[in-house]
Design a protein that fits this description.
Number of strands of chain B: 0
CATH architecture of chain B: Orthogonal Bundle
Distance between the termini of chain A: 31 Å
CATH superfamily of chain A: MetI-like
Number of helices of chain A: 12
Oligomer: heterodimer
Helix content of chain B: over 70%
Shape of chain B: globular
Shape of chain A: globular
Strand content of chain A: under 5%
Strand content of chain B: under 5%
Number of helices of chain B: 11
Structural class of chain A: mainly alpha
Radius of gyration of chain A: 24 Å
Helix content of chain A: over 70%
Largest sheet of chain A: 2 strands, antiparallel
Number of domains of chain A: 1
Chain lengths: ~280, ~270
């Protein structure tokens, strides 16, 4: 095989960042994969191949519960975020007029402010002596603080929907922008109701954006550490919290690695399945 | 049509209130003269901001974070520029796969990145310090820089470069005098956004920092002490304002890139 002039020039530029990514991404991922087949005795690593970590990660009830809960929370967050994001993206694209850029900017600002602080604020809002309870007591709506607000899965879902919504709007907006407006005029002229028009034209044509939004939200939220730790309580902890505990306090890095690999496998296979199911909408991409 | 427009406008306003409401609590309670974060408000005070002036650990954390944010945003912008230049100027073997690979950290859960990097560092027996966080953050920011720089390089007309070379400038001169000024809005956007991301990033810093905490790691530690809550809110207010300024600047330069793209498209059509 011979290299052309273009090959050489391209790789001369790309070489450095590519090697950086290899060393800091591919090598660590491979190391973690290897680690998941080893065992740790206090601080000493035993490098003999074993499937014990996976047996533990897949079949022990604690981990099964955490995986199921993480999946369920991520799934709920994704559904709610898309339901919230779609009308907003639709408004900006179809009624935004000259102010489209301004609306988009307003929506993305919160995303660039500290994620840690935003999630922490939900704890302050929902707490027993928190902002919401004290406000409701102050105006006389309740006499006892509400206890169901904080430290459960619902609080995690609420905080995550709030944190990730801007992410969903952008891809949906982009695909709505690409819809040829004359198609809508044609369907109006031919007598489609707004309802029919939405389900026969707008939704199918915006599916690439919806699929993108689903992946952008579903994949990272399943591995979220901050939100469950702050607002989840013991009933709302997710798999990332367990990975961190195994890695540090429990001194069981191999099990943490097996849990990480398993989460990646689960998220990866669900994402691929989801993309395949929507294949007919993604033909042009 | 008019009616549905109103409905959607109401939708978006409610959505924006939901989006912004939590952030509004930061300034409200950081100026509130009370140790508890609750209604009713008790009075105006700047005592929580004054408290921040005497927190030595906070100042150290701030210095660490600034060092990390500056270093990693510069490194990531250099990498992003190289990737964007390579992929927009040349067609080469393995281009798509390698560029996609560099973008992977965009969708990988951060906890996985943190665990992976820490595993390798421990295996190699390296000490954790500020530089290990810089490396982690550079990995995380490079995809963002790459995407911004790709859009900046897209408007670069190849004939300008050829003209400059034909008229006797060296490749280095051409890069410095023609290419660099034309992609400078992209460079500035990339530096700004890299800086903001690194300044706010918690998980990777949490895993990779040794004994020197970054700002978010410091804030995380404060959450455990109820007495520290009001001053943490004050710190949050300051961070919010800094982020807003930086992001507005970013938006300004991003528009400049789009303007360039727009003009070069018009020129193409003529």
């Amino acid at each position: 095989m011979s290299f052309s002039e273009q090959d050489k020039k391209g790789w001369r530029l790309l070489g450095l960042p590519f090697i950086f990514s290899l060393l800091l991404l591919a090598v660590p991922l491979a190391t973690m994969f290897a680690l998941s087949f080893w065992t740790q005795d206090y601080l000493v690593l035993k490098k003999t191949f074993t499937l014990a970590n996976y047996k533990q990660a897949w079949f022990e009830p604690v981990f099964q519960t955490l995986f199921t809960r993480s999946l369920l929370i991520s799934f709920t967050v994704t559904v709610f975020t898309i339901i919230f994001a779609f009308p907003v993206a639709y408004f900006i694209s179809f009624y935004g007029g000259k102010r489209k850029a301004l609306w988009l900017f307003l929506i993305t600002i919160p995303f660039w402010t500290s994620y840690l602080l935003r999630m922490f604020l939900w704890k302050v809002i929902l707490g027993y002596n928190g902002v919401l309870n004290s406000f409701l007591e102050w105006i006389g709506a309740i006499t006892e603080p509400l206890t169901f607000l904080l430290y459960n899965s619902n609080a995690v879902v609420l905080a995550l929907v709030h944190g990730w919504a801007p992410f969903a709007i952008l891809p949906i907006f982009v695909s709505l922008e690409k819809i040829d407006r004359s198609l809508l005029e044609a369907s109006n002229d031919l007598g489609d109701t707004a309802f029919k028009q939405f389900f026969r034209i707008i939704l199918p044509l915006s599916m690439p954006g919806v699929v993108g939004a689903v992946l952008i939200i579903f994949i990272p939220t399943i591995g979220d550490y901050i939100t469950p730790k702050l607002v989840g309580g013991p009933e709302g902890l997710m798999i990332a919290n367990m990975i961190q505990v195994q890695f540090s306090k429990a001194n069981n890095a191999p099990l943490a690695a097996a849990l990480s690999v398993t989460s990646l496998l689960i998220v990866g296979s669900i994402s691929i399945l989801f993309v395949l199911l929507n294949k007919k909408h993604l033909r042009n991409y | 049509m008019k009616q549905s427009s109103k409905y959607f406008k109401a939708c978006i306003v409610i959505f924006l209130i939901f989006l912004y409401a939590p952030a509004f609590l930061l300034p409200i309670f950081s100026f509130n003269d009370s140790k508890v974060i609750a209604f009713p408000l008790s009075g105006f005070s700047t005592v929580w901001f004054q408290e921040l002036l005497y927190e030595d650990t906070l100042h150290d954390a701030l210095r660490n974070s600034l060092f990390i944010a500056v270093s990693s945003s510069i490194l990531a912008t250099v990498f992003g520029t190289l990737v964007a230049r390579a992929s927009s100027r040349y067609q080469f073997f393995g281009q798509r796969a390698s560029v996609t690979f560099i973008l992977v950290p965009l969708i990988l859960p951060e906890i996985i990145l943190g665990v992976c990097l820490l595993t390798v560092l421990i295996q190699l027996g390296l000490n954790l310090n500020l530089w290990t966080v810089v490396l982690g953050h550079t990995l995380l920011i490079t995809p963002f820089s790459t995407l911004i720089m790709v859009s900046a390089f897209n408007n670069l007309d190849i004939s300008l470069e050829e003209a400059s070379l034909d008229l006797g400038m060296s490749a280095v001169q051409t890069f410095r005098l023609i290419i660099l000024p034309m992609v400078s809005p992209g460079l500035i956007s990339s530096l700004l956004i890299g800086f903001v991301i690194s300044l706010d990033e918690f998980i990777i810093a949490f895993f990779l920092t040794g004994v020197e905490p970054t700002l978010p790691v410091y804030i995380w530690a404060q959450f455990r002490f109820p007495a520290k809550l009001p001053s943490t809110m004050a710190l949050g207010t300051i961070l919010l304002i800094v982020s807003l300024i930086l992001v507005s600047l970013f938006e300004y330069f991003r528009r400049r890139i789009e303007l360039y793209n727009h003009y070069s498209m018009e020129l193409d059509q003529k």
